[in-house]
Every structure is written in C-alpha cells, then in structure tokens.
Amino acid sequence: MADVHGLRATLAYIQDNPQRWRQDSWQRCFAAIAVELAGYDVLPSRWVRLDSRSVQVWDAAVEVLDLTGDQGWLLFNPGNTLAELRMLIAEITRPRHAPRHSHGLRLVR
After folding, report:
1. 99 confidence band (pLDDT: 50, 70, 90)
2. Is pLDDT above 80 for 105?
C-alpha cells in the first residue's frame, strides 16, 4: 500500500515551494523531493544512500513511498505537470472500494 502521507506531503511541499520543483530535472523532480523529505540525501550522481545500499533516485522514491514500479513510472514521468501529479496522487491514494471517476487513471497493483 502506497505511503499516502509521504505522497501528500511531497505534493504539498511542491505546491508551497514551486521554485524548488522541476519535474524534468532528476535533482528537483517529485522523486528527488520525496526522497529528501524522507530524510535521505540525493547525491550529484543520481544515487541515494538508502540504509546500507546505494540506489538511483527513482528506485529510492519507489521504495520510500511504497509504490509499485508502474505507479513510480507514471508518477515520476519527466513530462508530468502539477495538475497531472495531483490527479495521479489522488488515484494512487484513492481507497480501493471507492468508485473510479471516468476521467481518472486506473492503476493496477
């Protein structure tokens, strides 16, 4: 199950600090911000020291936010706008028993 708090906290941070976010830059994208908010340092080489392992920033964010690979691929797409991030997070965090809107994306776990 995705980390609802982590996803929403990252989105809130981006909305409150738009100058710090740039989805097409791995150093300032949603994934990098989520990893930093979780207390990890993103190194200049795109790697993150996650516990005793070194992993790339996107992989670290998938792990930190407890996402599936498909959810991470959709959420961390460099072309995503803020509106698309809001929609994706709403879909990822939607309770599974709630009806799906016809305009929303359906992510399969």
Report:
1. low
2. no
Helices (H) and strands (E) in the chain, counts: 5, 2
E-strand stretches of 1-109: 47-50, 53-56
Q: Is residue 105 part of a domain?
A: no
Residue 101 is assigned to a structural domain of this protein: no
102 located within any domain = no
DSSP-derived secondary structure letter, 99: P
pTM across the whole model:
0.83
Which are the contacts of 108, defined by CB distance < 8 A and separation ≥ 6?
A: 70
Using alpha carbons only, give the angle 29, 30, 33 rounded to the nearest 5 degrees. Answer: 85
> How confident is the model over 17-65, as pLDDT tens digits?
999 999 999 889 999 999 999 999 888 888 898 888 899 999 999 999 9
Question: For the chain, how many structural domains are there in total?
Answer: 1
Chain center to CA of 32: 8
Least Cα distance to 40 among 55, 19, 29 occurs for 55
